[in-house]
Amino acid sequence: MTILLICDAAIIEHIFTLVCKRLHIKLTIQKTNSVNEKFDLIIIDQSFIDDKFNTIKQFSKKLGAISSEELSFDKSRDFIIQRPFLPTKLEEILIEQIEYIKEEKAKEKELNLNKYEEDEEVFVPITKKYIESLDTTNTNYSDDDFYEEEDDESLISSNSLNIGGILDHRELSKINNILREDVIQNEINLEKTDWKDIAAIIDDALDEVKEYEFDLTKAPIKHYSLVLSDFHINELRPLLEKFDQTVIDRLSSGESVDIRLSLKE
User: Which superkingdom does the taxonomy of this entry point to (predicted)?
Assistant: First the structure.
């Protein structure tokens, strides 16, 4: 979206710069009302509203004016920004005008699409008379001069066309057979190159992982730490009585002892 601001007031230029940056709008500022390129919006400050005002309208989709008073009816404007204005008010007006432009573009696109559908070319059967009329330079040519291979079923000569130019049942069948052969050939090529049997896919997957062995019976060993100082001596007595003096001496010196517990050997 593009906006041209015609203005020489620094405060207005500053407000427009901030708001357009916030709305991601490309802003152009100039201090003259000489316009020679098109913009989505052109906004003119009141000091530049003169006889050229209506002429500038042709270079924009929407033309606005910054004015402290209502403009006369001979000024062809789409909207007015009342002086003075706050940035929030300017942002609201710009968003509204941008939505109008988007709606107009959508309607124009729909109208062009409908017009295209209405103007779409209608197929007109080719007649033998029309084909013969195309050769204006030499009327002595025969079909054999143009088609060397008479047995080629894909070629239909002008002599085979009946009056009215509509293909008969035999000619339609010939065309359908040619098209059918192409479809069948494409399906064969696709089957040979792109499709793979599901069993082959499984075999390939097994080949990729057969070198790896997994033992699900082995689980990672988790160590449990028992800090004796966290318990009363009476709680630890049944356990400590199972150890010999060597283990007791190591524990007394602050060393750690690994203990393996099991229900059976």
Answer: Bacteria
Q: Would you state the pLDDT for residue 154?
A: 53
- Looking at the domain assignment, is residue 23 inside a domain? yes
In sequence order, what are the residues at sequence separation of 6 or more whose Cβ sits closer than 8 angstroms to the Cβ of residue 70? 80
Q: Is residue 212 part of a domain?
A: no
For the stretch 39-53, pLDDT in tens is: 999 999 999 988 888
For residue 8, give the CATH number of its domain: 3.40.50.2300
Range of the domain at 31: 2-117
The lowest-confidence range among 89-98, 108-117, 203-212, 238-247 is 203-212
> What pLDDT is recorded for position 91?
95
Tally of domains in the chain: 1
Is 201 inside any structural domain? no
Q: Is 97 exposed, middle or buried (0-12, 13-18, 19+ CB in 10 A)?
A: buried
Quote the radius of gyration of the chain (alpha carbons, Å): 45
